[in-house]
Amino acid sequence: MSTSTLIPHWLDGAPFLGSAEAASARTGDVTNPATGAVTAQVAFADEDDAARVIGAAAAAARAWAETSLTKRTQIVFAFREILNARKEELAALITAEHGKVLDDALGEVSRGLEVVEFACGIPHLLKGGYSEGVSSGVDVHSKRQPLGVVGIISPFNFPAMVPMWFFPLAIAAGNTVVLKPSEKDPSAAVWMAERWKDAGLPDGVFNVLQGDKVAVDALLDSPDVKAISFVGSTPIARYVYERASQSGKRVQALGGAKNHMVVLPDADLDLAADQAVSAGYGSAGERCMAISVVVAVGGVGDELVAKIADRTRTLRTGDGTRGADMGPLVTAAHRDKVASYVEAGEEAGAKLVVDGREVVADGGADGFWLGPTLLDQVTPDMSVYTDEIFGPVLSVVRVDTYDEAVALVNGNPYGNGVALFTSNGGAARRFEYDIEVGMIGINVPIPVPMAYYSFGGWKSSLFGDSHAHGTEGVHFFTRGKVVTSRWGDPAVKPVGGLELAFPKNH
Ligand code: NAD
Question: Which parts of the sequence belong to the Aldehyde dehydrogenase domain (predicted)?
């Protein structure tokens, strides 16, 4: 790819440049984080571009809703087959723009594929209920229908998986989609649009709108868009939730996280250390389910920190195409911000056990490098604890008791994921009940639910009451109707007459 490459929107089954062709066009740089090089520009939609793309989705909505359920799910199945056969291509695109190592990018695609597979079985979840003879000659049935156009706004850290939390179900349920991917890694969205075309999806059903706040606001305000699925940082999630709700849409807005891993004194410390390192530094900590705080309970701190530090020092940081364990951060600005937290933590009195700023990476000299960093003796008033850092920085907080650990987790404004490491089933059972977090792992560090369950946090990690995928996802993208009908028996003379009171004994 050369710097003259311009990554387009996707409109009506074809690439669309819109205002990006004008000399005064707004575009954004797309970089390869492992080299620091600008590899392409991405089109930034203006209001006219947004209206064109949303208009195409609106125009396609009725015909797609009326396409038979069998045909719709056959197309989703065809998409699944194509995606599965070509997933290495998508993984390579992700690594080139996001920086995560190839293996991890492939894992991301596989988790997205699970939702596509779940969507193939959507007919089972779109079945209504039926009650015969609720009154004389009266039957009741229910059905679920698509909403129309739905907008999906996604973050940089999972350019394929997060959109796939939503669009397979939205499309299978009979909606049309406008996806607004992150401007930092926009190519995956266009690649997936091409695969939908290959799968036989009618033009206009899946569209991509590239850009920034202008594109997002157009989706939030358009009367043609009936629902918004957003994933990103908490301040933007709150903004999206409020603005889209004001214009009458249903909204699910998933926000940021600060995920704790509580290690009880009876835990297997080798297992806990392995998992803390994998879940803390995988994808350079740029995962909403990354572990960022290890809570060492009741005197396990010294041994646990030593085990985590030993493992951390073995990690190889480098270009994701060269077999490294961990890649670069997504941009230079983000790398600098994450590094500034390491400095702030040290200044506030945390003990720097492993310093990622000294990393020698196997990659370009101008890559956005920061190695895995371990801070011990972190306290809840430090910015390394209070803020979502979203980088390879693992903090260890020490507490004396289980109750203190639970109070710490529950006192945190975020509630996305949490993990408990223990060999005591009773303690685990108690923890599941006590903890105010949406997704819980017991001896599992990143408890991302399978596609047939729903994904979502509590508190500042989710605005709205609908989690992603699973049954909740199907409900989010459909709305219910209940039909009460009366058909008289032709052999029986109908009983007429007026009755102005509510019916009592039918
Ligand atoms: P972000 O909030 O900066 O961006 C998310 C989306 O919002 C992007 O498409 C971006 O273009 C758009 N956006 C950014 N600023 C905007 C503004 N002012 N107005 C309107 N739209 C705007 O998030 P990010 O940096 O791309 O992603 C990282 C964040 O996402 C982290 O906070 C992470 O925890 C969170 N995340 C959460 C989950 C979850 O499931 N809860 C999953 C993945 C990522």
Answer: 24-483
From the centroid of its chain, how far is CA 179? Answer: 13
Q: Which domains does the chain have, with CATH numbers?
A: 6-255+461-482 (3.40.605.10), 259-442 (3.40.309.10)
Query: What's this model's pTM, rounded to 2 decimal places?
Result: 0.97
- Bridge partners (DSSP) of residue 178 are 151, 207
Name the residue of 111, 157, 239, 389 to mutate for ligand 1: max ligand atoms within 8 A of Cβ. 157
User: Which residue do the tokens 């609720």 mark?
Assistant: 134
Distance 327 CA to ligand 1 centre (A): 20
Residue 486: pLDDT over 80: yes
Task: Give one word for 462, left, alpha or beta, with left for phi > 0 and alpha for psi -120 to 50.
Answer: beta
Torsion of CA 94, 97, 100, 105, to 10 degrees: 0
Q: Are 368 and 230 in contact (CB under 8 A)?
A: no
Structure tokens at 49: 């571009």
Which of left, alpha, beta for 137 (phi over 0: left; psi -120 to 50: alpha)?
left
Residue of the CA atom closest to atom 32 of ligand 1: 233
Collect all residues with Cβ–Cβ distance below 8 Å to 194 and sequence separation of at least 6.
Answer: none
Determine the residue type at 120.
Answer: C
Distance CA 137, CA 496 (A): 13
Burial of 25 (0-12, 13-18, 19+ CB in 10 A): middle
Q: What is the pLDDT of residues 78-125, one digit of tens each?
A: 999 999 999 999 999 999 999 999 999 999 999 999 999 999 999 999
pLDDT tens per residue across span 242-257: 999 999 999 999 999 9
Q: Nearest CA to 274 among 311, 222, 244?
A: 311
* Segment holding 482, helix H or strand E: strand 478-486
Residue 34 carries which DSSP code? Answer: T
Instruction: Classify burial at 278, counting beta carbons within 10 Å of its beta carbon; exposed 0-12, middle 13-18, buried 19 or more.
Output: middle
Tell me if 108 CB under 6 Å of ligand 1. no
| ipTM of this predicted structure | 0.99
**Local confidence band at 2 (pLDDT 50, 70, 90 cut-offs):** very low
Residues 262, 288, 408, 437: which is the catalytic one? 288
Q: How far is CA 232 from the centre of its chain?
A: 8
Side-chain-side CA neighbours of 287 within 13 Å: the count stands at: 27
**For this structure, is 288 an active site residue?**
yes
244 lines ligand 1 (CB under 6 A): no
pLDDT digits (tens, 9 = 90+) for 293-352: 999 999 999 999 999 999 999 999 999 999 999 999 999 999 999 999 999 999 999 999
Q: How confident is the model at residue 215 (pLDDT cuts 50, 70, 90)?
A: very high
Ligand 1 atom closest to the Cα of residue 217 is 20
